[in-house]
Design a protein that fits this description.
Blueprint (H helix, E strand, L loop, with lengths): L7 E2 L1 E5 L21 H8 L5 E9 L6 E7 L3 E8 L5 E9 L2 H12 L17 E8 L4 E7 L4 H36 L9 E10 L5 E10 L8 E11 L4 E9 L6 E9 L13 E9 L4 E4 L2 E4 L5 E6 L5 E6 L9 H11 L4 H4 L7
Parallel strand pairs: 2-9, 11-17
Antiparallel strand pairs: 1-12, 3-4, 3-7, 4-5, 5-6, 7-8, 9-10, 10-11, 12-13, 13-14, 14-15, 15-16, 17-18
């Protein structure tokens, strides 16, 4: 059984424009697209490694649907999909079926004999509307129906839910164990004088450019009796070769861990030019250690005492080329003030001098 932990995220201030596509790129969207079309698009598509997926909402379509899926390796995912171009995922959980469970589900799918409804079944107000896609051992099939879940399908879902519940219980046990480890290792590190505790991250795009201004903000107490002061932990200009910015934020896998991660996720269009399911993704992670006052990017550690301003250029292969500037901007400055600081340092860089923040 494998558990993937959901992050405990700080507040995120995000403004990247309607969609952060590279210059000359266009989203593959028709003006007449209706919200429910995202549900049907997800139901119509399946990867080659899919074993089953269960999509459901209660009509009329509320703008999101619940998804449960299992791949051929037994990896289980469940969550709410706010289906649009960004494909936000809420309340997700993960687990992995063991070999016996996976074989049992495979066998049950081969014996699943229900009327197939390949054509669209219109949702009925007040009733659950479901699309069930699965591999029966020979080919992929799709069942569409309203109302109650057929008994045979419900039996399969109960096996999956049982494993998800077991994974959740294991996660709770691991959280308790980790908390004890943090206390033994670091003590009451959050209340140490001089430690900058992350509070929230922010991300802002630029007008007509493949660039982002990101930063991590926090609060630092230098005197035990004094109030904590708002500070900037670090700032970074990030340039990237293309794709759509579809995720970002900061948090920790553990609320008591001094290491937090700020990330950016880019989604690249699939072969059909769509940014929906099966579109590949690229990521950038910046790990901040509050005790050591360092950031780590792709295995390279930088001490913030030598400068908390960075320029990160993502190469064509999406590996980061990092430049740490010998300059510090510690106060909780506005995004415009941060950009002005970058421009004052990089006076000879034409690409940076031409940057203008995306207008909200």
């Amino acid at each position: 059984m494998k558990v993937i932990f959901a992050s405990i995220c700080f507040a995120l201030v995000l403004s990247i424009g309607p969609i952060a596509l590279g210059q000359g790129e266009k989203a593959n969207l028709a003006p007449e697209r209706q919200p429910i079309d995202w549900f049907y698009e997800a139901a119509n598509y399946h990867s080659k490694t899919l074993l089953l997926k269960f999509l459901q909402f209660t009509a009329p379509y509320p703008g999101h649907y619940n998804l449960t899926s299992v791949d051929s390796n037994g990896h289980v995912f469940t969550g709410r999909i706010v289906a649009n171009l960004f494909g936000a995922v809420q309340a997700s959980e993960n687990a992995t079926l063991d070999a016996a469970q996976l074989n049992q589900v495979r066998l049950m799918l081969t014996k699943l004999h229900l009327p197939s409804a390949e054509t669209r079944v219109e949702p009925q107000p007040g009733q659950p509307h479901t699309a069930f896609v699965f591999y029966d051992g020979i080919a992929y099939r799709r069942l569409n129906f309203n109302g109650e879940i057929p008994t045979q399908i419900d039996a399969i879902l109960k096996i999956i839910q049982q494993e998800l519940s077991a994974a959740e219980k294991l996660k709770e046990e691991q959280v308790i164990a980790h908390h004890r480890l943090m206390e033994e290792t670091y003590g009451d590190w959050k209340n140490r004088d001089g430690v900058a505790l992350p509070v929230n991250s922010r991300m802002r795009g630029f007008e007509g450019n493949r660039g982002l201004l990101i930063g991590l903000l926090g609060r630092r107490k230098t005197i035990p009796t004094a109030q904590a002061t708002a500070v900037s932990i670090y700032h970074a200009l990030v340039f990237y070769p293309g794709g759509a910015v579809t995720g970002g934020g900061s948090g920790t896998n553990w609320s008591d861990d001094p290491v937090s991660i700020q990330g950016v996720t880019w989604t690249l269009p699939n072969e059909a030019g769509s940014f929906s399911e099966n579109a590949s993704q690229r990521e950038l992670e910046i790990k901040h250690n509050a005790i050591d006052e360092t950031v780590t990017i792709r295995g390279e550690t930088y001490y913030l005492s030598r400068g908390n301003i960075f320029i990160i250029r993502m190469r064509k292969d999406w590996t980061p080329d990092v430049t740490q500037l010998n300059d510090r901007l510690d106060q909780d400055a506005s995004e415009q003030s941060v950009l002005v600081r970058f421009k004052s340092i990089m006076r000879s860089d034409v690409s940076i001098q031409g940057l203008e923040l995306y207008r909200r």
